[in-house]
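Sanity check. The docking grid for fructose -6-phosphate depends on where the pocket ends up, so I'm generating a full predicted complex first rather than guessing from homology. Inputs follow.
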Amino acid sequence: MCGITGYIGNKEAKEFLIEGLKRLEYRGYDSSGICVLEEKTLKTLKAKGKLSNLIDITSKETLSSNIGIGHTRWATHGAPTVENSHPHLSADGNFAVVHNGIIENYRELKSMLEDKGFKFVSQTDTEVIPFLLQYNYKGNILDAVKATVGMLKGAFALVILSTYDNGRLYAVRKDSPLILGRGEKETYIASDIPAILPYTKEIYLLEQDEIAIAEKEKVTVLNKEGKEISKEPFSITWDVKAAEKDGYEHFMLKEIMEQPNAIEKTVLPRINNEKVDFSEISLTEEYVRNISRIFIVACGSAYHAGIVGRNLIEAMARVSVQTELASEFRYMNPIINKDDLVIIISQSGETSDTLASLRYAKEKGAKILSIVNVKGSTIARESDDVLYTNAGPEIAVATTKAYICQVQVLNLLAIYIATAKGMINSSEHTALLHGIKSLPREVSEVLKKSDEIKQLAKKFKYTENAFFIGRGLDYAVALEGSLKLKEISYVHSEAYAAGELKHGTISLIEEGTLVIALATCKTLFDKMLSNIKEVKARGATVVAIVSGNGEALEKEVDFCLSIPETCEMFSGTAETVLLQLLAYYITCEKGYDPDKPRNLAKSVTVE
Ligand code: F6R
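Predicted complex below; grid placement will be based on this.
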C-alpha cells in the first residue's frame, strides 16, 4: 500500500523523505511525491512511476528546508498520474497532506466543497482533506485538523504540513498505521518501521484516533478527546541489516534463506523442559482442555497457514477447527460465542479485513489469539493474546519467512492443545518435539538444493499454466505453492485437492501442462500415485515433490525433487520452502522482479 514519510529537524528534510520512501518501496506504489516548506511556500515535487523518477527531479532542485512530507501512492481513486499523486495541496497553497487509506465519504465532502467554490484538480479521495483544512482554518491549525478529522469517514493515516507553522507537523491515525521516531533534535514520521530503522530505534506508535504534533525537540500526542496523553516510546529490536538486501539479488531470496534462523527464533524460546511453553499468553492448559471450537481467520498466505493449522490441530488435538477467509468471515454473520477461540493470523498486523474480523469476533465475546509478525501492530494490540512470529522484517511483497513462522506457531499450538487434552502419549509427544526442532536443519537441506531448483526452473521459462495437486497436508501446501508462483511469475496457477481434479479441472490438462504433484503424505501416497498417473496419461509434465519415497515415483514423473524425510505432520515446512525457491527462480527466468510483483502491495489496509 501507500507509504508515508515526514521529517522535522536540523537536516535537509528531502534526504530522509526520499531515503525513507526508498525503504518503503517494497510496499508497492505507482507514483510518488514530496513537499517541503521553503521560506513561506510549500514546494511540491511529484512523479509518476518509479521512485527513481522522483529522485531525478529532486536532484535538480535545491529544496532547502528542514521540514517536509513524502508519499508513495498505490492508486485506488484515480489513475497513477502526477495530478493524483500526493502530497495534495489546499486551494490556497497553505496546507499539504499525505494520506494512506480511503476516505469513504469523499463524494459528499467534495460536493459540499464544490458548492462553496473549491475547484478540485485530482480524481482522488485525498484532495478533500487539504481543502477541508483550508475551509476549517480559523487561525489555529490544531483546531482545523480536529474539525477536519471529525468530518472524515473511512481509514486514514495523515501527515499535514502548513505554511502557518514551520515548526510542526501534524500526524493523525485512524485504522491505518503511523509511527513517529525521535532522533537528536529531530522527529521522523513513517507509515512503517523499515523507513526509520537506520535513524532511530525509539518509536511512538500512534493509536486509533490519536493526533501527534511532531516538533524538532519533542512529540506531543493527543487522544480522541483532544487531551494530551503521555506515551512511552517503543524500542525496535530489528537490526538495520534485516531491512537490507545484504548481498542478495532480491529481498525474497534473502528472506527464503533466512528461514532456518527464523524458525529457530520462533520455536526454540517456546520449548522448555521438553514441553511447549506458552506462559507468554493466557491460554492456560485448563482453558485449552475445555475449548470446543476454534476459528482461524486470515487472508492470502496467512489463510493458507491457517489451513495447515486446521489440519494439524484437528489431527493431533481432535478439536473442531474452521479456517475462514477474513474478507468473507466479516460479512457472513458467523455463529460465534464466548466459548470460541478465534485465531487471527497476520504478518503485518494491519490487514483491513483481518482486523475487521477480529473486531467482529471480539464483539461476540470470543477469545482472540493472534499470530503476528509486526510488534505493536493494530491486530497485536487489539487481541487478548499475541504469539509473535520472530521472522524479523519481511520486505519482499510475497511472504516467505513470515508464513513459515506462522506455520511453526500453529505446529506448537497443535502440540500444546493435544498435550493439554491428553490426545497424544509421551512417545508421540517426544517425536513431535523432535520433529519440530529438526525443521531448521531440514530447511537448510532444502536450501542447499537451490542450484538444482534453479536449473529445473529454466525448463519452465515459457510456462503459462500450472496446477499444484496434493492430498491432506500436501493440499494445504499446494495452495501456498500455487499462490507463490502466480503472484510473482504471473504464471496462471491453480491448487487442487488431487482427488478433486477429475470432477472438472482435469479437462484443462493437455500435452505439456505443468503439474506440481506434492506427494509427501505417506498414508495417501498410493492415492496420489493414481492421480499422478491420471494427469500423465493426458500429457502433463509432472514435477513430483517427495520425502523418502522418491523411488516409487521417479519412473512415473518427469522430474522429482525431494525434501528430507521428516515427521510427517511437519513435512509441509521443508516442502513449502522448496516451492518458494521454484517460484522465485521461475520468476527470475521470466525476467520479472520477484520483490515487486505488479498490482500487489505488502500490507493491504483497504478492503
Ligand atoms: C502472499 C502474501 C499475501 C498476504 C496477505 C495477508 O505472498 O503475502 O497473501 O499473506 O495479504 O497479509 P498479512 O499476513 O499481513 O495479514
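Relevant for the grid: The two ends are 12 Å apart (CA to CA).
Also worth noting: The chain has a mean pLDDT of 94.
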